[in-house]
Amino acid sequence: QAVLQGTILLPPRVVCSGFIILLAWLSASVATFRHPGKGSVPLKGWRRRMIQTTLSCLTRTLFSVMGFQVKVKGKIASLQEAPIFVAAPHSSFFDAIISALTGMPSIVSRAENLSTPVFGKILRSLQPISVSRQDPNSRKNTVTEITKRALSKGQWPQVI
């Protein structure tokens, strides 16, 4: 019974997931089109609202299509309350669920992830802080950038 049900549900879930990812890529492309700074200047106005609302909604929908039911208990901290928050043990795709539930904050990510087709564009729209394993100063630069964004008084989104 469970195998039959999984066999029937898998194709529509794959098609829906692909469509949602395509919409997320399109939204990220529109929001970052001709944006000056390429990640060194925060997204503002309609661009930031578009990323926050559209990508958050699409990511939640994607996880729902995949069969995840997520409930938030308590209150999610605002940017003013917590400019930085930590998700642990951040080692899986569950970080995306946390990002969707918290309004698509900036993340700290490997620099290599930014060059991934489709997902790299979506990731870039979140204005991540990239960490390079080849650069010996990368850790220090990452800490400096996190501090700069945390002290920006709301110009940058939260950092996860």
Automatic annotation (TrEMBL):
Entries under SUPFAM superfamilies matching the protein: Glycerol-3-phosphate (1)-acyltransferase
Gene Ontology terms: cellular component: endoplasmic reticulum; membrane
Keyword DNA-binding included in the entry's annotation: no
Biological process annotations from GO: lipid metabolic process
Superkingdom of this protein's organism: Eukaryota
The family this protein is said to belong to: Belongs to the 1-acyl-sn-glycerol-3-phosphate acyltransferase family.
Name used for this protein in its record: PCAT2 acyltransferase
Encoding gene, per UniProt annotation: Lpcat2
